[in-house]
UniProtKB/TrEMBL annotation:
<dbReference type="Pfam" id="PF14486">
    <property type="entry name" value="DUF4432"/>
</dbReference>
<protein>
    <submittedName>
        <fullName>Aldose 1-epimerase family protein</fullName>
    </submittedName>
</protein>
<dbReference type="InterPro" id="IPR014718">
    <property type="entry name" value="GH-type_carb-bd"/>
</dbReference>
<dbReference type="InterPro" id="IPR027839">
    <property type="entry name" value="DUF4432"/>
</dbReference>
Amino acid sequence: MRLNGRDYDRTGLARLAGDTGAAGGVRAVVLDDGAERGIRALEFRTGAGLSFDVLVDRAMDLGTAEFRGNGFGWRSATGFRHPGLHEYRDDDGLSMMRSFSGLLLTAGLDHTLFSAEVDASQYRYPPRETVWNGLHGRVGNIPARLHGYGERWSDDGECVLWAEGEVRQAAIFGEHLRLTRRIEADVGGTEIRLIDTVRNAGFDPTPHMYLYHVNIGWPFLDEGARCEFPFERTTWQSDSVAEQGVSNIEMPAPQKGFIEQVYEHELKPDAAGKVRPRLVNERLGVFFELEFDTAQFPAFFQWLHLREGAYAIGFEPSTHHVQGEAAARENGSMTFLEPGEERRYETAFRVGEL
């Protein structure tokens, strides 16, 4: 692996340091104050200047994230609230807004987007004919069972930091879905790799919707920062776009009373089916890039939340379009996983210098 302009193999690094942690590593900690108290976290740190936290008790989502001292994972006023404080039906289905912070919030596993009450007859339980789902579903506030974490040397000589765990979303007379999540980062690199598998571990056909709410904040997001997308066309936008007229390409400073602007874009994939939307900050000389497979995530949303005190931009690859679950059921595009069926999602988060 290459660090600070020099190449190292496993033996060469061992000659210099008795612990790989001198170059980079993963450390298990427990957050211990305020609403975060009790959350297990894994601190990843690479020798190329990338650091990020994996929130084990928050579906192994990504919290704080920095590159060479500059933050890019959004930090909201809610902090990383312990899931034990979460009330799913609070705020008329908007309870996620009381625990919404960090680089990645996972939405699903059976519902994404806005609240919906839908048919649940597949579970064959007469007292529960329908199921009610809040904004972006339940999974983001379910603790994971941690399988392990650490480091391994790959065949090509790279030291890989990793963590893996399982999140179970299950109910009697309801869904039984399991998310197995693996997170990797090279000690010599500035890329986070996310490998997710969602499996129907139950015995009834079960709805499946999946979305990554990837949130970039200050200082990567700042006045003059620019979005770079391989646009084909914009297929939907919120009413606030026309009302406010704020560009979704050139980012302004925080706005007083800003109403979120949301877009669904059709992006042009490369020959391998991949797209790489970016946020570029030329003043800092840095970029953030998300890479995903359009076969796995056929829809993509851009979220602008440029209000004072909650300044963020979101990239959102999704399995379903912005109209949500009720519309997907009506038009036949809703995904149902058969017993034992699974879906795999491979995504990369990259930062670097221009």
